[in-house]
Task: inverse folding
């Protein structure tokens, strides 16, 4: 069927001009904080020898992915909140969809790598340096990039196969498969099953795997010393909080039939903008090593500035 749509009109979060100004301010603050927070983590890890372990190596990629995931939607939402006509071209829509799934998938895979790192560190401490060498970590991250690319290409292929011949009004503030399938001039039942299998199953299976792995890790802590148990428990608790914050919205969005709920837009906002902001906050507020490294980095920069 022929595709007659060259652009889409986005309804956005609200059509109330007063509320749109509030949206502009809130999302702008959230986006700036997200970029600065994740950038701070990346800079701190890269410049702190004390944070040279694989866990922090993976953390830099999680922060990079979070910043990019937020960038796929937040800037357009900020600009659109000041415009009456919220339009996005067909090509830009497909690019946004691809980028959103790519960095969202990258987040999932990096969280899995971080859980694997904690499992090896706690359950196989004598072989940790051999198993989690820098070369192995680099290969794992490269595989995560490849996996994210394959997943995103599959999502993009489904989107490009959709025929549009009627309304081009997207009931959302960004492009994703679910709102686009509602506009398609064809039966999307099978395509929706593919989306649920592709994205929904990935979210659900990954979440279950992560919860099982952290259960095994926490169970194995009974043999640790009190100090080691406390440190490992603090780190694992931080990871579990991030996993719950990220996977809750992800499962809600992608692991269900093609239906619309009033909370859909807010859940998408939390998934694409809220979670990427909370991740750096959680890792800095709950991680003593990161906070110490940040203070040292800030202190060194102040000292260097004074000498100059």
Result:
């Amino acid at each position: 069927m022929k595709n007659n749509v060259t652009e889409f009109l986005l309804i956005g979060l609200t059509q109330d001009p007063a509320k749109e100004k509030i949206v502009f301010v809130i999302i702008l603050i959230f986006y700036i904080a997200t970029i600065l927070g994740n950038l701070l983590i990346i800079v701190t890890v890269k410049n702190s020898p004390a944070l040279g372990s694989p866990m922090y190596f993976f953390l830099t990629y999680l922060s990079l992915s979070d910043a990019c995931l937020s960038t796929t939607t937040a800037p357009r939402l900020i600009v659109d909140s000041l415009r009456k006509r919220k339009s996005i071209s067909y090509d830009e829509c497909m690019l946004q969809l691809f980028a959103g799934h790519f960095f969202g998938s990258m987040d999932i895979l990096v969280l899995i790598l971080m859980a694997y790192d904690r499992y090896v560190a706690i359950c196989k401490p004598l072989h940790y340096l051999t198993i989690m060498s820098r070369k192995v970590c680099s290969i794992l991250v490269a595989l995560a990039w490849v996996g994210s690319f394959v997943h995103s290409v599959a999502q993009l292929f489904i989107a490009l196969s959709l025929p549009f011949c009627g309304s081009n009004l997207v009931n959302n503030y960004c492009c994703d498969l679910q709102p686009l399938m509602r506009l398609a001039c064809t039966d999307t039942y099978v395509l929706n099953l593919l989306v649920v299998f592709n994205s929904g199953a990935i979210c659900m299976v990954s979440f279950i795997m992560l919860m099982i792995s952290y259960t095994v890790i926490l169970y194995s802590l009974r043999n640790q010393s009190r100090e080691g148990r406390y440190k490992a428990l603090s780190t694992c608790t931080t990871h579990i909080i991030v996993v719950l914050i990220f996977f809750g919205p992800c499962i809600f969005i992608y692991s269900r039939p093609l239906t619309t709920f009033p909370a859909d837009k807010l859940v998408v906002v939390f998934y694409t903008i809220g979670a990427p902001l909370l991740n750096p906050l959680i890792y800095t507020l709950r991680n003593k090593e990161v906070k110490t490294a940040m203070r040292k980095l800030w202190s060194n920069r102040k000292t260097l500035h004074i000498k100059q």
In short: The longest strand covers residues 7-10.
